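Quick one: structure for this chain?
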Amino acid sequence: MKAFAVTREQIASVAASLTVDELGSRFGRHIDTLTGASWSADTPLFEGGAELSPEEARACLFRLYRFFGREDAAASAKEASSFGEWADGVAAAIRTRLSAFSFSAARDDEREYSHRSDTIYADAASAANLLYGRRRLLSLVAPHSLIGFTLSVLTPNLLQAPSVDVRSMAPDEMKKFLAFGDALIATPSLWRYMLAQGVFAPDNAMAVFFGEPMTADLASEIRKAGFGAQREIYGSTEHGLIGWRDVPSDPFALFDNWRKQDAGLRRVLPSGETAEVTPMDELLWEGDRRFRLGGRRDGAVQIGGVNVFPARIAQKIAEHPEIRRCEISVTKQQNGADRLVVTIELNSGAPPSESTARSIDSWCRAKLQPYERPRLYSYAASAGK
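Got it. Here's what it folds into:
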């Protein structure tokens, strides 16, 4: 299993990414992407670095140990002053045992999903087959999600290819950095941004994407920007990597360890056992090995590659003392990306004053994560007004 070994620097990167997520979900403290992506093994945990409080540090440390399936070892971890020292403690713990990983599905969903480490390694092996021959794997996604960790940490380790976290690179810097044979991993939303900033690549670069539906128009624009080879990965935090395709017009193909099973799926585990699962999306089958995606089963939509739940967002907004009713709808922008639109009815039944509108905006900023916040607001008059 040496090919699946995780380096100190990679553990520290996961630790920093988990810390950003934990600070946002548990403590309501937002860390911007560039700042969080710049944290490394050398970044101090406290003053002059992540500026963690003792309570925040304790929660983030336990989250890190849970990620690697060793929460039992967190309480005995030595005092640390940097992400690298956290990584040293985790590295020692997983040398003794690494039998599971734990991933969170969404920041407004407190559930975590544990997977046996051999099934995650199998996912990485499947991804490695798709990305074989790439000289470097560059990632614009955080390494603490199941798919992000699999693609940006385990898969390049298996391929013995350099893995580079490029989240902190400016677009102009990215254009100079991309080289022949690279694979760039990003969600469709991030691809839209990079293309809008004029990023292009030498020939024989590969685009890898997941997390949101890819449109034919966006795939065409990516190809024109020099990414002639493309791979779209389909999977979920709940179930791992499930399928892949080259172009949006094709159905997805199941990875080798999956089988069609009535209305769901059956996974053949590395141990030889099997597990039946119900995928998060409706699967529209074309034969036994290929499928297209129907709607989500749980009502989630994907904004920037993150699952959000419009009904839950509407409920949080409606808790504002001046709001009688709130509804969230999803519309598509001209570039094909989904956006959230909120319709609000006030208790007064009248249009909002400037102070009320500002109060509602402040409420949303306090109660919602950035990707949950609606992009358009409209105010409806109550019946009879």
